[in-house]
Amino acid sequence: MDIEILKATAKQMVATGKGILAADESAATCQKRFDSVGVPCTEESRRAYREMIITAPGLEEYISGIILHDETLRQKTADGVPFAEVLSKKGILPGIKVDAGPKDLALHPGEKVTEGLDGLRERLAEYKALGARFAKWRAVISIDASIPSDACIHVNAHALARYAALCQEADIVPMIEPEILISGDQTIERSYEVTLASLKKVFEELAVQNVLLEGVILKTSMVIAGTKATTQSNVTQVAEATLRCLKEHVPAHIGGIVFLSGGQADEQATAHLNAMNAAGSLPWPLSFSYARAIQNPALKVWAQNPATNIASAQQVLLFRSKMNSLASQGKYSDAMETERSY
Ligand code: 13P
Q: Which regions of the chain are under pLDDT 50?
């Protein structure tokens, strides 16, 4: 493990005004996204869509790294240049999703544990040779009246820490993602309680397993009422509760924190990030690692005609990336949305 490489990569991932674009949807998730806009989901259509994203001119102004799926890391542009090479030339770090997805947790109905540790050391060596500089592992925690259980929080935190240690051994920065799903009817207070419990366990496990926090990026959910909750939370409440929760359990010397969008509306995800960064100086860099909240509008434009709408989809992608870049500096305002072309 090279401490300086890990620290430098983590620093680059959350450099001022930059965040991560998550484009690591599995073929099954891509199928859902493409179905929603009426585009057939094939290896070639996924490749063409990702080429549109990766080659967006000037993307590197806002995006420090892109998380890719195994299939995408092995793909090339229509001209035959590996995607990882295109990204590296632009100064964007190629990342790789390495988990094998959430599976049912034995004896715990309705709960999941993320698998993928077996053979991970060997896969990381291969991904590194293919150009990956950071990785992602996503744990999924659902909330209802009786879950999550302590067991679910524990096994997922344990797996995240084992994954993180293997990444650091290979000089790859682990992005640690314990996602609390927001699709339930939980109040913001319950979201706070579960996020806090999960983060507490994650940092305990990271310490037990000797993971270097300066070489870790935490990818977390925001503390927010569930989308089915009768009372929705406003921007000020989300920013205040999320910062309070993060300050409680995330040590100041972590490499950085980024958020997933989790199904929030695009502008809502931007406004929440902005409110947190506008709240004054923070102990850690705080940025974004959105998939849907950046890609949604660009996907819609591209889908209208994938052969001809490449430049127009890229403009839309760049616009949302820029808005989130501004939000990561507390410099975004709703009024800026009027400048968009979609
Ligand atoms: P969303 O921003 O669409 O939630 O996706 C982020 C991600 O990488 C989920 O693992």
A: none
